[in-house]
Write the structure tokens for this entry.
Amino acid sequence: MKRIGVYTSGGDAPGMNACVRAVVRAAVYYGIEVYGIKRGYSGMINGEIFKMDSSSVSNIIQKGGTILKSARSKEFATKEGRQKAYDQLQKFGIDGLVAIGGNGTFTGAKLFYEEFGIPTVGAPGTIDNDLYGTDYTIGYDTAVNTALEAIDKIRDTADSHERVFFVEVMGRDSGYIAIPCAIGGGAEIAMIPEAVTTVESIIETIRVGWGRSKTSSIIIIAEGEIEGGAISIAAKVMEVLPDMDARVTILGHVQRGGPPTVFDRMLASRLGIACVKGLIDGRKNVMAGTIHNSLVYTPFEETITKKKEISPDLIKAVEMLSV
Ligand code: F6P
């Protein structure tokens, strides 16, 4: 392994910069040349590739977003696109890759290895925390804390005006953001893709709350929840409870920005080093992660196909703590 490339791909996540920094500095430490690839697979196809050194990553550990930019490339999904990407890597003499991203990123990397033999080690970078093979993904801790801070503020105004708030958080396929927001934010209900919560049960919970003289409530909804998002769920509840004073807040991309927490900086730094070391040790097609605080490498095949389950006791805790 003489020359590696590093890229960020898919939805950005706080801590991606800390991970890029760790990859670059670890490569320098091990005496390997390192190139940055801009805009994920799209930059790989277009040859947006540049040499990096230790100073290229100065003053970025605390910054949200990604200095390498990120994109979701349709062209890389085609054989022609991947051929172009391979040609570019050949031009720069890159013989190994570090991919920082989520499921889509690793699906692309796996295919790329199978067709062209370029080894990739991945670092899990997504606020969703939905990747099998790691307890936590880079950016998740920051995103949850950002969301919780907003929910605390919503609780103040919900309490003053005696309202029900329907708060939508991110999580396309998972409730990993919604559950800690509900438990940590003292919400009545968390609606998540992994468990069925009917509109009828929300109505019942609100009514029971009113019966106990509760004057405000917070319902957390993961965007991937099957009933169809906070606006539609609020509308369905209001049809049955027309006197309810309700508001909807969609937290959206605010959850994707901001300086990473110390947890995310540590995780990103550790996994960035693990990616470079993994490539040096001849690993390929694997994602570096931590399980019970130990470093592990999981084949992309598993991270892509296996589902990381949410503990049922956490789902139950939301219900138990809102009685
Ligand atoms: O995967 C991270 C994520 O933030 C999801 O929670 C969300 O559904 C999606 O990305 C949004 O993607 P985009 O920024 O492309 O709208």
